[in-house]
């Protein structure tokens, strides 16, 4: 089975509740959305066909057992991910998804799913199914300084907690940190259980591929 792979790299989880754990990232090509703030535009329509064995050869060189499928939107490759995870079942698998497509073949093979819904492309039925059928799930919202819609969605889905991740646009490090602090101050007034976490890999390594 063949899939287009944008990049495979070894780093730490830089986002969400599993932040800091070492992980191997498999970034699949292709996405069903075109977010203006996308930080992986190079992965939206790339071509780099690899078969499962070639991918396995690459990942097996790294001394880690956590694999994160990301993209692009990896659920477009539901069949491939299911095939891969069943074949190489000595790893723990994690998924980063925008929550618009339901990965029915692979969902029960992920130890944990990070859903990052985009406010202009919400599919409530898919989000509810992800909550219902995943083994473990968290919501991560990429936010700017106005996050009313995100709070409304939390309400609608009955979420008790979520991660808010300040969006990194054309910010310098200094402006990103200042923006994050402004968001923290605003969220202090809001009675939701929200963790505010910046994208730690960008602070540590800068804005580049493969980290
Ligand atoms: N270190 C690191 N952590 C990440 N967590 C989610 C990422 C993603 O691009 O989906 C990502 C990424 O690109 N790098
Ligand atoms: S869903 Fe994610 S990968 Fe796709 S365009 Fe939006 S930010 Fe980029
Ligand atoms: Mg990223």
TrEMBL record:
PROSITE patterns: RADICAL_SAM. Pathway: Purine metabolism; 7-cyano-7-deazaguanine biosynthesis. GO terms for biological process: tRNA queuosine(34) biosynthetic process. It is an enzyme of class 4 (lyase). It catalyses: 6-carboxy-5,6,7,8-tetrahydropterin + H(+) = 7-carboxy-7-carbaguanine + NH4(+). Its EC number is 4.3.99.3. CDD domains: Radical_SAM. Binds 1 S-adenosyl-L-methionine per subunit. Binds 1 [4Fe-4S] cluster. The cluster is coordinated with 3 cysteines and an exchangeable S-adenosyl-L-methionine. Keywords: 4Fe-4S, Iron, Iron-sulfur, Lyase, Magnesium, Metal-binding, Queuosine biosynthesis, S-adenosyl-L-methionine. Substrate binds at residues 12-14, 27, 70. Mg(2+) binds at residue 40. It holds the Pfam family Radical_SAM. PANTHER family: 7-CARBOXY-7-DEAZAGUANINE SYNTHASE. HAMAP family: QueE. Homodimer. This is 7-carboxy-7-deazaguanine synthase. It comes from Hippea maritima (strain ATCC 700847 / DSM 10411 / MH2).
């Amino acid at each position: 089975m063949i899939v287009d792979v944008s990049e495979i790299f070894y780093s730490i989880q830089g986002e969400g509740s599993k932040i800091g754990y070492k992980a191997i990232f498999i970034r699949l090509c292709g996405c069903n959305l075109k977010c203006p703030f996308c930080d992986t535009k190079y992965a939206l329509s790339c071509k780099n066909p690899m078969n499962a064995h070639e991918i396995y050869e690459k990942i097996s060189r790294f001394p880690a057992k956590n694999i994160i499928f990301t993209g692009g939107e990896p659920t477009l490759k539901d069949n491939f991910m299911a095939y891969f995870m069943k074949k190489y079942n000595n790893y723990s698998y994690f998924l980063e998804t925008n929550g618009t497509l339901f990965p029915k073949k692979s969902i029960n093979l992920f130890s944990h799913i990070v859903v990052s819904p985009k406010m202009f492309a919400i599919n409530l039925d898919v989000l509810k199914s992800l909550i219902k059928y995943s083994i473990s799930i968290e919501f991560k919202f990429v936010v700017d300084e106005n996050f009313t819609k995100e709070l409304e969605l939390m309400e609608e889905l009955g979420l008790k907690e979520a991660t808010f991740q300040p969006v990194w646009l054309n910010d310098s490090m200094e402006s990103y940190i200042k923006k994050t602090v402004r968001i923290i101050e605003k969220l202090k007034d809001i009675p939701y259980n929200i963790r505010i976490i910046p994208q730690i890999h960008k602070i540590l390594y800068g804005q580049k591929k493969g980290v």
